[in-house]
């Protein structure tokens, strides 16, 4: 696994360009820095300074090469590369709280922004006024929207919120697209229509992800659960109470396999068994280095007993690659149906690239369906 | 006193936990019963009891353990700590997280 330490502070969010040669990230401040891979090194080539608050979301449209960023300053900017300079265009979101997440739609003619204003701003470009405008999806969201993911049909949008729910809305904008054809989530999709709402979790929904086909949606919540809704099974929800600390990010890597990571600082595999409608834990994906097992001195044993009431010799230092919580996962190659590489960034300021084939050969019991 | 009795009492208490009840008297009675059952176990019997539970049972047990910590009686905390150790080994930190995030307390 390739690990690169960019910063000594958390990476707030990141996004990759189409050919994965450049990464845009927020170094825990009001800026976005773009790094380019040159051989084995990463060189900073741009600094985007426009936001007046921490940048909470970045998305890089692969085809049009535009960046969209959103921040706690309640603004979003669409950035276009003109020559060698990134030029920002302000998008008025009409929100009175921080923006928390942003995602381009698959056709890149819209983007969605989740915010603390308990609504989602769907933004599209109005040709005649040469201006980005937005429409709001409000009902029935009751708290901050933390995560968003688009369905491949460019219309349906999944949203995870601090009101413990995962919802799928229609973000159909008649000005920019044709009427969508029916999907397993429903046939009538006027703007703002609620197609699905979950009921299980007792925790803030940190991250949400559609499968490549769009017929499944998975989400992770702060109550240490992972859930999946399957539209082909009448939107039945499978959930797993994990033994881990809460997960903060999740993505599909095949139609039935998921990788999630969070406060345990380590990506983990989960498998969805369609026939039984169950989710199972498939193992940790971080192979710790074999640290030399030296015995404890009598003094250390006593201190352990005193501090932790246990005499076991498991060490208290992290032997995972990331030394702090992983906050974001992105698919690099292969797409969400045949992912061959994915990337994690975290609060340790590091970025790691994981190779699925290598993981399969090193971790003998790993079964990726 | 046979081990089987304690184990049966334990499963009964877990099964009849008033999950969705808002009635404070009922919940308090259930807590009291559960505490009695948990403190009646010998240390060596705890692990077997925990292993006989499913995932939801372990989560529920963890909720009762923390409830027991909240209102300690003489010697209750010592035995509860032993239950905690065994429940943690099976349920992981996730089961403790769910005690903190649960909307419906036991």
Can you walk me through this structure?
Chain B: InterPro entries: ARPC5 (IPR006789), ARPC5_sf (IPR036743). The complex is a heterodimer of chains A (369) and B (106). Chain A has 2 domains: 1-197, Methylamine Dehydrogenase, Chain H (7 Propeller); 216-287 and 317-368, Methylamine Dehydrogenase, Chain H. Chain A has 369 residues and is mostly beta strands. In chain A, a hairpin with a 5-residue loop joins strand 18 (205-210) and strand 19 (216-221). Chain A has helices at residues 298-308, 356-362, and strands spanning 2-5, 13-16, 22-26, 31-38, 41-49, 55-60, 67-71, 76-82, 85-91, 99-104, 110-115, 120-126, 131-137, 145-150, 156-161, 166-170, 194-197, 205-210, 216-221, 225-230, 236-241, 247-252, 257-262, 268-273, 278-284, 326-333, 341-346, 350-355. In chain A, strands 1-28-27-26 form a 4-stranded antiparallel sheet. In chain A, strands 2-3-4-5 form a 4-stranded antiparallel sheet, with no helix packed on it. In chain A, strands 6-7-8-9 form a 4-stranded antiparallel sheet, with no helix packed on it. With 106 residues, chain B is mainly alpha-helical. In chain B, 75% of the residues lie in helices and 0% in strands. At the A-B interface, loops of A face helix 4 and helix 5 of B.
């Amino acid at each position: 696994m390739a690990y690169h330490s960019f910063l000594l502070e958390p990476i707030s969010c990141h996004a990759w360009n189409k050919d994965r040669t450049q990464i845009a990230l927020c170094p825990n401040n009001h800026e976005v820095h773009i790094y380019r891979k040159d051989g084995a090194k990463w060189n900073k080539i741009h600094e985007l300074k426009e936001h007046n608050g921490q940048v909470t979301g970045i998305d890089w449209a692969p085809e049009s090469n535009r960046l969209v960023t959103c921040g706690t300053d309640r603004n979003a900017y669409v950035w276009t590369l003109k020559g060698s300079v990134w030029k920002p265009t302000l998008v008025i979101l009409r929100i009175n709280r921080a923006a928390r997440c942003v995602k381009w739609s698959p056709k890149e003619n819209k983007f969605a922004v989740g915010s603390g204003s308990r609504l989602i701003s769907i933004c599209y470009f109005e040709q005649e006024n040469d201006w980005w405008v937005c429409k709001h999806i409000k009902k029935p969201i009751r708290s901050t929207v933390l995560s968003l993911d688009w369905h491949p049909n460019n219309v349906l949008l999944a949203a995870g919120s601090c009101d413990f729910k995962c919802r799928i809305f229609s973000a159909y904008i008649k000005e920019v697209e044709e009427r969508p054809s029916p999907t397993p989530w429903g046939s009538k999709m006027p703007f703002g229509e609620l197609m699905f709402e979950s009921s299980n979790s007792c925790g803030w929904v940190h991250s949400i992800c559609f499968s490549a086909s769009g017929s499944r949606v998975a989400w992770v919540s702060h109550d240490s659960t992972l859930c999946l809704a399957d539209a082909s099974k009448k939107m039945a929800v499978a959930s797993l109470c994990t033994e881990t600390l809460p997960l903060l990010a999740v993505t599909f890597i095949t139609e039935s396999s998921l990788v999630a990571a969070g406060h345990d600082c380590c990506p983990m595999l989960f498998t969805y068994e369609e026939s039984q409608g169950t989710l199972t834990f498939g193992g940790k994906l971080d192979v710790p280095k074999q640290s030399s097992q030296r015995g404890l001195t009598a003094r250390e044993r006593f201190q352990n007993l005193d501090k932790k009431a246990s005499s076991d010799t498991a060490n208290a230092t992290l032997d995972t690659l990331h030394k702090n919580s992983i906050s974001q996962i992105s698919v690099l190659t292969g797409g969400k149906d045949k992912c061959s590489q994915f990337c994690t960034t975290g609060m340790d300021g590091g970025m790691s690239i994981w190779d699925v084939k290598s993981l399969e050969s090193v971790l003998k019991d790993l079964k990726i369906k | 006193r046979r081990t089987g009795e304690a184990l049966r009492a334990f499963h009964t208490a877990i099964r009849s936990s008033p999950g969705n009840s808002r009635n404070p008297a009922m919940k308090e009675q259930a807590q009291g019963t559960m505490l009695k059952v948990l403190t009646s176990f010998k240390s060596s019997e705890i692990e077997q009891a925990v292993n006989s539970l499913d995932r939801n049972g372990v989560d529920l047990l963890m909720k009762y353990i923390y409830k027991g910590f909240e209102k300690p009686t003489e010697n209750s905390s010592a035995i509860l700590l032993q239950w905690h150790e065994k429940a943690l080994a099976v349920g992981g930190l996730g089961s403790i997280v769910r005690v903190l995030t649960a909307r419906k307390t036991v």
